[in-house]
Amino acid sequence: MENLVEIKDVSFAYDVRPVLKGINMVVPRGKVVSIMGLSGCGKTTLLRLIGGSLKPTRGEVRVAGQAIHELGRQELYEMRRKMGMLFQFGALFTDMSTFDNVAFQMREHTDLPESMIRDLTLMKLDAVGLRGAHHLMPSELSGGMARRVALARAVALDPMLIMYDEPFAGLDPISLSVIGDLIRHLNDALGATSIVVTHDVQESLKIVDYVYFMAEGVVVTHGTPEDIRNSKAPFVHQFVWGEMDGPVPFHYSGAGIAQELGLERAHA
Amino acid sequence: MLDGVAALLRRLGRQCIGAVWRLGYASRFFLFVLLRSGTSFRRFRLVIKEIYFAGVLSLIIIIVSGLFVGMVLGLQGYETLQKYGSAEAVGTLVALSLTRELGPVVAALLFASRAGSAMTAEIGLMKATEQISAMEMMAVDPIARVVGPRFWGGLISMPLLAAMFSAVGVFGGYLIAVVLIGVDQGAFWSQMQGAVDFRNDIINGVIKSVVFGVAVTAIALFEGYDAPPTAEGVSRATTRTVVTSSLAILGLDFVLTALMFRGA
Predict the structure, then answer these.
(1) For residue A192, what are the CA distances in angstroms to A188, A222, B15, B159, B219?
(2) If we measure between CA atoms, which residue out of A117, A186, A122, A118 comes closest to residue A151?
(3) Is the ipTM reported for this complex over the cut 0.90?
(4) pTM of the entire structure?
C-alpha cells in the first residue's frame, strides 16, 4: 500500500534541547494512525513537522512524495490546502460565527459563489451534527461542540490528510465517543488519511488502524491496536493500563525524603 | 570584584544585543506587513471592519477628551490673554494649539491606550489560543489576513480621530470663551480664520497624526504578534504597547515639530 506520509530518521531540537531523536514512521493512504506517548514526548512537534511549521534538524518528512522542509512558502501553502488540522482546543476564530468558521477556507481559497459556500458549509456542519448551531458564536458552544465545529472546519476542503492534536482532551464521555466516531467515519467517507496524536488510549485504540508509541523522542513500539493491548513491553503496559508506577516513576527525581526533611542530620 | 564587573558588562551586552535584535525583528515584521498588504486592498471590507473597531469605537473617548481639552484651553488662554488686552485672540490660541500639537498628540495617546492595547490583546490571545497557527495551517497568511487590515484600519482612523479631536476642541474653546465668558463671537472666529494656515498648520497636523498612526499601529501589532502565548505574556505585551507607543509619540512629535515649525 502506498504511503501518504513518510518520516525518515527525523531529529529535531528546540535550541539545544533535543525533542525528537531519529524517528521513522509511515502512514499509509486511507488509514487512521495514532501517535501516542506521554505529554512532552514530541508528538505535537511531529505534527508541526508534517505540517511544515517546523523544519527537522536531520532527516526528512515526505507528504505525497514531497519533502516538506524543501518546499518554498508558496508550495508549502499549496500543500497545506490539502491538509486539515484539528487543534487541541479547536482554535476556532472567536470573532466569527460557527458558519463563518467552517466557510473560512472556502472563502479564502475558492471562487465559489456564496450560495454554494452556504450549501457546502451546512453539509459539513450536518456531518458533525451541528447544522442547527450554524448561527452560534464559539463562546456559545460547549467544549465538545467546539471540537466538532473545528472538525467540520478541518475537513471543509476535503483534505487528503487530516491531523488531530489531542482531539479527546477535556471532553466528557459522550463527546469523546462522538469525536472518536466522527474521526473514523469522516476519514472513510472522504477517502482521507488521518494522524491522531493523543494519550487517550482506550478511545483511540477503538478507532485507529495502527499505533506508534513514543517516549523521550523515539518510537518505542508500534503495531495494530491488538498488538498494543497485548504488549508486554513495560512502558506500553504501564501506559495502556494506566499503572501508577513502572518505567515512568511516580516520584519526580530529587533528593531523598529523609535528606529533604533534615532527618539524616538529626540522626547523625 | 572583577568577576562582578564582568558579569554586569555581560548582562549589559546581552541586553543591548537583545534590544537591537528585537528592533531588527520588528523592522522585518513591519516590512512583511507592507509587502503583504495586497489582501487589505483587494478585500477592503476587512479594512473597513478594522476602521470600525479602531476608529468608530474610539470616537466617544476622543470627543469627550477633545471637548474638555478645548474647554481648558479656552479658560487658560482667556486668563492669560486678557491680561494683555487680547482676549479675542483666544480662538487663535485654541485652534493653533489643537491643530499643531494637542490634536494629533493627545488623540494618538488616547488611540494607543484604547485601540492599540486592544489590537495587542486581540492578536496576543489569537496566538495563545492557536488561532494564528490554525490560520497558517489553513494556508492563509496571518500577516496578510489579520495584521495587514488592522494596520491600514489604524492608519486611516488616526488622522480622522485627530481631526475630530481638534474640531471638538475648538468647539469646547468656543463654549467657554464665547458662550460662558462673553468674548466677541466675530473676533473669536475671524482671528482664528486669519491665523490658522491650511498648509502650515492643518496639513502639518495631519502629517503628524499619520506618522503617529503608523507608529502606534505598528507597535501594537508587533507586540501582539510577538507576545508569549500565555496570560502573563499577553498582559506584558499590552503594557509594552501603551508605554512604547506613548514614548514614540512624544519623541516623534518633537522631531516633527522641529522639522515643520522651525522659524515659522
Answers:
(1) 7, 22, 50, 51, 43
(2) A186
(3) no
(4) 0.85
